[in-house]
Amino acid sequence: MIIKSSESNSHYLLIKCLLVIMLIEYSNGGSGFLIIPKRVEQNQTRIFDRDKLTSTSSSGNFSVPNSISDSSKNLNLIKNVKHTISGSSLSDGLKSNNLTSNNNNNNNSTSQNQSINETSIETSFSTSNFTNITAQVGSIVELPCTVHNPGDGTTISWIRRKDYHLLTVGLTTYSSDERFSALHLEDSEDWPLKIKYVQLRDAGLYECVVTKHPSISIFIQLNVVEARAEISGPSEKYLKPGSVLRLTCRVVENIENPLYIFWYHNNRMINYDSHRGVNVSTESDNRYSELQISQTTTSHSGNYSCVTNNAVSSSTLVHIFNGENPAELLRDYGIAISPSTTLMLSLLLTIVTYQIFCLCSL
C-alpha cells in the first residue's frame, strides 16, 4: 500500500489500516491487542462461566475457549445439548401423556363395554317352567324359583293361580295365611316360596313373577299326598282266650319317613308294656311295625290303633270271648261278623228258641 503525502489523507488511511488490522486479527482468532483483545477475553470468560454452569459435553466438561470462535462453538454445543435434552424430555412427556390418555380411553371404553354388556344381558330363569313338586300333608315344602340377572329395581312375587291370590312381593308376605313366606339370601339368585304344614287344599299351580317391563314368569305345580297307616286284615278280629294276637302296620303313600310308630290299646300307648305280654318291633325307617301278644285274655279286647307323626292313623277292633257264642261259631267257618250282626243273630236265636218252646208246650 502507498501512502500519499497529504496529511489529511494520511490520518484517514492510518485509521483505515488499523481497522483492517483489527478485522484481520478478529477473523483469524489472534490474541488481539489494545482494547479489543481485553473485551474479547472478558467475553470469553463470560461464555466459559455460562457453559460451566448450564451444560456439559459428552465427556462431562468443556475446555477453556482460546478464542471467540471456540466460545461460539461451545455456545452451539450448549444449544444442541439443550435442544436434545429439552426435545427428549418433551417427547417423553408427550409419550407419557399419550400413554395416560390411551389408558384413560381404554378404561372408559372398558367401562362402557361393561355397561353395554350388563344392559344387553337378559333376565332368565334357571328353574324349568311347570316344574312338579310333590309334598306330604303336614310337611314343609319350598317351591323353587331361580332368577338370573333380575336387574336393579325389579322384584320377585309369588301368586297362587287357582284364586289369583298375591302371596308375597319380595320378602314381604301379603297373605293372611302365615304358612306362606318368601326366602332369599343376599347375593343369591334363589327366591323359593316356603309353605309350612302343607294341606291338601294347597295343591295347584303357583306363579313366580319378575316385575319388570315386560314382566316374565314361570309356573310351579304343587302336588300334595296324604300318607296313611294300614293295619293288615279285617277291621274286626275275634279270638279265644289264650290265643296269639298279631297285628301289623305299614305306612303307605309317604314321601318322608315317620319319626315313630306308636301302638295304642284304646287310649293307652302300649309300645313298652312288655310286662303285660305286649311285644312291639319296628323297622329302622319307621314304615313298618308289628304288635304281638302271645297269651291273650279278655282284658286284651278293645280298639287297637297304629299312629305316626305324619300319616293318617289306622285302627282295628279285637274281640276275645269266653266260651262259644254265635260270633265264634261263624268265625270258625271263616265268616267275619260285626257287633251289630252278632246282636241281631242273638235276638233271632232267642226268638226261634222261644217259638220252639211254645210249640213243645202245646
Characterization of this structure:
The chain is an alpha+beta fold and 362 residues long. The strands form five sheets. A six-stranded mixed sheet has the order 2-11-10-5-6-7, with no helix packed on it. It has a five-stranded mixed sheet with strand order 13-20-19-15-16. A hairpin with a 2-residue loop joins β6 and β7. α2 packs parallel to α3.
How do the strands of the widest beta sheet line up side by side? 2-11-10-5-6-7
- Tell me the major beta sheet: 6 strands, mixed
- Class computed from helices, strands and strand pairing: alpha+beta
Taking pLDDT < 50 over at least 5 consecutive residues as the criterion, the unreliable ranges are 1-5, 31-69, 81-90, 115-119, 332-336
State the end-to-end CA separation.
209 Å
In short:
The chain has helices spanning 7-27, 35-54, 68-120, 326-332, 339-361; strands spanning 124-125, 131-136, 141-143, 147-148, 155-160, 165-169, 172-173, 180-182, 193-195, 204-211, 216-225, 228-231, 236-239, 245-252, 261-265, 268-269, 278-282, 288-293, 302-308, 314-320.
List keywords for this structure.
27% strand; disordered N terminus; 362 residues; single chain; 5 helices; alpha+beta; five-stranded mixed beta sheet
